Structures are given as structure tokens and as C-alpha cells.
Amino acid sequence: MSNVFTFTPQHELEHEKNLQEFIEQSRKLPPLNDKYDYDSNYWAGVGNFTNFGVSNQDRDPANVFDASLLPFAKAYVVYGKSTKAGLSVKFYALKAINVVCVKQYGFVDITKLTIGDFDQAAKIARESIGAGAAYQAGRGLNNLLKFLIENKMVSPFTWKSPIKKPADNATGDEADEHRQKKMPDENALMALAKISAAKTEDLSPRDVFTTSTMTLLFSAPARGSEPLYLRADCLHSEKMKANRAMELGLAKEDIELLLQKQPSDGSDDTPSRFNYDDEITLKGLRWYSGKSYGHENKWLPTVMIDSVMTAVERLKAQSAEARAFAKMLEESPDFPRHPLCPDVPEDKPLTMDEAALALGMDLSAYDTKKKKDSRRNPLLKRKGIERKDYVVSLRDLNKIVRRDLPEGFPFIPFKKGEGKVKLKWSDALYAGFANALAAQKSTCQTELVMPTINTLNEDLAPTKKKSRTTDKSLQNTLSVFQRWGCGDLVLTSHQLRHMLDTMAAVNGMDGEMRAKWAQRSDPKHNRYYNHTTPEEYGADFIEDRENELATQEKASTTQIQIQVATPRTIQELNTKASLTAHTTEFGMCVTSYLSEPCTKYRDCVNCNEHVCTKGDDGKCERIRQRLAREKKLLKQDKKAVDDGVQGAEQWYQRRKLTTERCEQLLEMMEDPNIEDGALIKLANVEDVTQLDRALEANGKKRLPEIVNFKRVQSVSVEALIGKADVELPEMDDSVFDDLDDLDELDYMMEEEG
């Protein structure tokens, strides 16, 4: 037969009709934003219609969804009001369906999707993305099927995603790996604190930006982009009674600290007693938080007040000129007369140098005409100005400057903040000029620029940027740690949010309060930020068990005594007495081994607890030999660094420190002004232990210790078991005679040193 008739059921015709009507109607809906073209496959600020594993910057047509799916995919994405997370869920589902159908059928027919297609799509999602994202893809597939059935685009059937939600495991290798990824490196935190403590005049503009921003993030678990929303007058002060502050959650110890810091009324008397009617001043920061939370004042922890105030003052000073420039643009239609602007009439023709100065380029920074011209001419060309004298005036430049202002001026066009952050350039704490944070480029004091979260994170790790000509890492782009000689340490702004949230969880802050502190709209999201260690969970279990036993004991007739002890409850450790003095090849070790074993593993030269004796020629000669050996190895390490050997820099810095320590020791051992028998002890060495080196060798970082302050506070046995008085046995004072002798030895050593 030449004519073959294929019967199509009425319901299938209805499915296809409904699908086409949906696609046509969705095209008429308002766009999700004004940054994309509906016919494009790459929607800025929304997502790209590309397969799993394809970069957002990839524009290869081979990686785009099949043409049979694109019309429905675009309609489905634009239909309905979705958050950014909701859009991601939709894209995951569409990507999985595209892969399955193209592989099995060569095209995608939405109206004929089956249970098997959804099963395969879930399998593809598991294989293509991480466990958390795969779970979200499963949710997206559930939502897609529900939508298709409700709108009669497929025949109804029952299906549920088989992808389980990843378990929030607090123990095991997987949890440890997750904790390593999310928590900050303690060495990086200490290095950042050291840099931040430097004098302001010793910090570059980039240093001020990075250290000050991280200081603000230390004060509250904010997202890395949220400090950028702060006003210059972001500090909030409020006076209140001490009892009111305690109702807000401030501890009594913090209130006493604030009372001590407050300026006195002229009398020399310091209050010896806590008074609930005392008036204190609390300080906070007025934040705006994204993800639908909004504005909130966050009180500063007392330990962070001074640091935050310093950070804010540094940022205000750094942004002062940019804010003043923006204010001039707001208040007057004339050319903004900034400090570099030539003092000439508005209509007077300018030379090229005067035009460059008016455009904000400081030509005094260049000592030769060649350098000056090489910087000035590209600026004039970029602004569309002919490179001749007397062709433009300030009136002409006024139009050019205002033409190049950021979109939305006088308000800052934040990409994040859900469009709810209304902040003027003239009020912004972080307002700045183009290239102000760049060491190699000239600042342009008529181009307003706001740093981004990428500006911050790029300065907290070795650069990943490569030269366009050599395809090698840029040599002159150093992180804040590299600029200050701290090595290739890595930190991210978001790790502080995880650390602070974990500290709050460990110390008993309830879920709703943690969500409010972190400005999360949903307290259920707290679990993603809690990285409590197995040891802490174990301590909680032991503590709960002890409390349970104590409660039972209180009601029982049988008396038992429960002793809560820590490693430093005995007298020897509290007084830090040294019960041993071990002989080493260079001197002697006076550390106490009651608390822990040697953390340096015989790296005595780099230990703060090592003491040398002046006049011991044998040990002096050993130090001399060690120095000669270290210098020889130092040259080899330097050559490895110059050759670009991976990991050579850390060994070079460590060897350099050892060499310097040996030189200092040898200089003092040979100093005729120091008497023989005198004890020599070098201090202030970086506390790098064998544990640090082992962690580094295994690609792990030292995580900050999260202390449960409620637990470490002194706990009396009496209070725990409910007894008013406990009679302790008398102790023989002779037990501590040797300790007293050693205390006296320590004192003599300090006097002689």
C-alpha cells in the first residue's frame, strides 16, 4: 500500500495542542530581567540552556539543548515566579531530560515522556553532578512531571524521584573532608590578623580593602558581598541600661568590660560592683542581607568593637575622595572640580596634559615625558578625545564624564541584593575609583567603581589568572598573604560565615537566634553551616551523661562523687612548671611534657622552649655546623623557587627562618659581652609544629579550634552533684617541693637571661 494511515488518539492531540499554546503564551510573558534576548540560548542573570558540565562562558552550539526541547525549556523557565534557587532546580531537570531523550530517541518530545525517561533522567543527574545538586535535580523532575500532568501535556502516571537527600553526617571521612573545605585555615586567620594589626600607613589600598572587609566579616556571619552594601555611617551606637543589654543577650562579663572602657566622669574611682542600672553604650553595624532577609542592625561582639571601628575608619578614609566626587556630580551640573582638576574657566580650551588631569589621571607620578605620554594618550583615546592640544574644555569633558558614569547613577547598580539595596555612591563605604586597588595601573579619579566579592576572594588566594601571551600564571599579581611574606595561604570570605555559625552552635545558641544573627530567612538552612567536630559531639554526650548521673545521685541514698577534670586542673599544669630539662645537641629543652609531647619533634632551633648555655664550646660548634649546612641547602631551595618547582616556596621560607635563628644564636654564643654560663633563649618564632607540616603534606589545613566556653569554665563538683559542702582530703605539701624548686630555677633563668 502506498498510503499508510497512522491513527493518533484524541488525548495525544490535546497534549500537543496544550504544549503549543503554553509555548506561545509564555513568550508573551514579561521577561525575568532586561539583560537577555528571548531567542538567545544564553540568558544573563537567569541561566544557559546548555548540557551538564558546560561552563557559563562556553558558547559552543554543540553544547546547547536539542532544538526540539528549546521552545518548551524557555517557556517553562520564564513561566511562574521563581527564585534564583528555583531557576536552578528547573535547569537541572531540563538538562537531565535533554540528555536522556537525545541519547535514546535523537530528539525530545515532551508529550511522550514516560516513567523510564524520568528514571534515566534521575540516574543521569546522579552521575553528572554532586549529591546535593542531584537531590535538587530530583526535586526539579518531580516538579516538572506535576506541571505536565496538571496542564494536560502528558498522560498521567505516578513517579517519584529516587534520589535521597544527602545525610548531614558529622563524623567520618566524608564529613571531615566537608569540614576541611568549608572551614578556614587557622594559619591564614592568624596571618590576616597580623597584617590587619599593621599601621595604616604601611598598608596598601588593596591591603586596607581586604583586611578591613574580613574584619567586618569576623564580627557577624555575613555573606561576602554584604559589607559592600554598607553606608559610610554604618556604625550604630545606642545607650541603654545594663539590665536591658542582658535581656538582649549580652553577658555580664561583657557589660563589665564595656563599663571599664567607657570614658569616666572625671573621678578616679572605678565601679567595684556590677550595677544593673549602669548605662552602657552598645555598638552595632547596620547591614543589608540578601536572600529576602532585609535590613538589620547587628550588635558587635565586645571583642570586635575596636577592630571593627578601626576597619570602618580605614574604609571611610579610603573612600572619602570618591564619595566627595559623587556628591559634586549630584549637587551641580557643572564639571566636578576634584583635587587634580586644573583651575581654569569652564570654556577655556585645555592642553592634553590638562585634559588628562581633569579626567583624573595624576601625571606627577611619571618622571619622564615618555612615561607620561604612554599613560595619557590611551586615556584620551578611550574617552574619544583627539590627541591634540586645545580641542576640549571642561564643559566638553563634563559631558564625557557624565556619559561614562555607572548605570543608575547616583545609585549603585548592585548585581546582587535583589534590587532592594538603594545606596548612593556619595554614601557608600566602599565607593572607589577605577584602578584604585591595582598596584600596576593608574587610578582614574573620574570613574567610579565598586569592588565585588571576586575582588575580595581573588586577594585571599594565589592568582589563577594567566597571561594571554604566555598562558602562565601572572607573576606580579600577589595575594595579600604573598605580599606580606606569608606564603601561598588560601582563605575565602564565606569560610568565616561557616566558622562563626559553628562557634554559635557549639556554644548553645538556638536555631532561630542563629538564623537571625546570620540573617537567614529559613532557620532550616542552619544545618549547612554547622561543622561541629565529632569530639565536640562526644563531649556533649559525656556531659549529658554526667548530668544524668548527677541528677540520679541527688535523689539517691547512695553517695557518689563525680569529678569533672580537664588536662590542666592539677597544680603543675596551672603553674606551667617544668618538671624536666632535657639535654639536646644544642642546649636543653625546658618544656613541660605533662600536657603534651614535643610538638616540634626535635626541631629545637625553631622552638621557643629551647635554651642554650653560653660558654659550651661543643654545642656552639654544633650550631656553627648546622648553620653552614642550612646555608648550603638554602641556596638549593632558592634555585628551586626560581625554577618554579611546585611547593618550593614553603620550604625556602622555612629554611630561611632556621638560618636566621642559627645566626642569632651563634652571634649571642660568641658575644664577649655575655658571661659564660648565661642562659640564651630565642623567642617569637612562628609556632609551626610537625602536625602543621603533616597536614600540609597531606593537603589539609589546620582548622581553628572552636571552643565551648560553657564547658571550659570552671565547674564545681558540689554544684554538679548538688552538695553544699564537700570535704576534700588534706594533701601532703611535700608532694610539691620539687615543683617549688623548679619554679625557683625558672625564675633564676629568667633573671640571668
Automatic annotation (TrEMBL):
GO-annotated molecular function: DNA binding
Organism: Photobacterium chitinilyticum
Record SUPFAM superfamilies: DNA breaking-rejoining enzymes
Entry keywords, A to Z: DNA recombination
Name this protein carries in UniProt: Integrase
Keyword tRNA-binding tagged: no
GO BP annotations listed: DNA integration; DNA recombination
Top-level taxon of origin: Bacteria
InterPro entries xref list: DNA_brk_join_enz, Integrase-like_cat_sf
